Amino acid sequence: SAVISQKPSRDICQRGTSLTIQCQVDSQVTMMFWYRQQPGQSLTLIATANQGSEATYESGFVIDKFPISRPNLTFSTLTVSNMSPEDSSIYLCSVASVSGANVLTFGAGSRLTVL
Amino acid sequence: QKEVEQNSGPLSVPEGAIASLNCTYSDRGSQSFFWYRQYSGKSPELIMFIYSNGDKEDGRFTAQLNKASQYVSLLIRDSQPSDSATYLCAVRPYDKVIFGPGTSLSVIP
Description:
The complex is a heterodimer of chains A (about 120) and B (about 110).
Chain A: E1 4-7, E2 10-13, E3 19-25, E4 32-37, E5 43-49, E6 56-57, E7 68-72, E8 75-80, E9 89-96, E10 104-106, E11 110-114
Parallel strand pairs in A: 2-11
Antiparallel strand pairs in A: 1-3, 3-8, 4-5, 4-9, 5-6, 7-8, 9-10, 9-11
Chain B: E1 4-6, E2 11-14, E3 19-25, E4 32-38, E5 45-50, E6 54-58, E7 61-66, E8 71-76, E9 85-92, E10 98-99, E11 103-108
Parallel strand pairs in B: 2-11
Antiparallel strand pairs in B: 1-3, 3-8, 4-5, 4-9, 6-7, 7-8, 9-10, 9-11
């Protein structure tokens, strides 16, 4: 399965600032996703990062708050904009296997704390 | 109605017992079904997936799928303390994967 490098692994941010999370995959993948895991909660899909086109956002998530880039088949970024304490979460990059089952592999996650 | 629901935990079983984890989903168009395990502070890791009705076995783990009832389960035989984790049921409708809230399992030595 693909190996995913995600950075930063953790950060402490000030309210009102923005932070960009990077996700690098060791092989070309078609499907790449960004999830959020709030403290004590399960994973919530933020968006599907599409190569060469705008990301597809889930209900409750908007591009202005979570802009995503996907310049090629091995790299994506997620920016958390104008952060508030409610954005304190773990953000996870994941990629789907090439098989039809869409088995997901996850990066180690980026733990953001907003003060 | 939430898209994916799981039996609320925490679930505690003695070592060597069978742990039974249940999951229901709302989208009848869902095509693949997954069980992930997540240890505290770690990312989820796949245990197994299933896409056909019936049972699928992999070592001590058995996944069961009933599409008519929109129900997926995971049985863990001979539970070990190392199985203590949160188990996430996930469902694939179309080209995305949706996760349930998770069930915390504790295996008591």
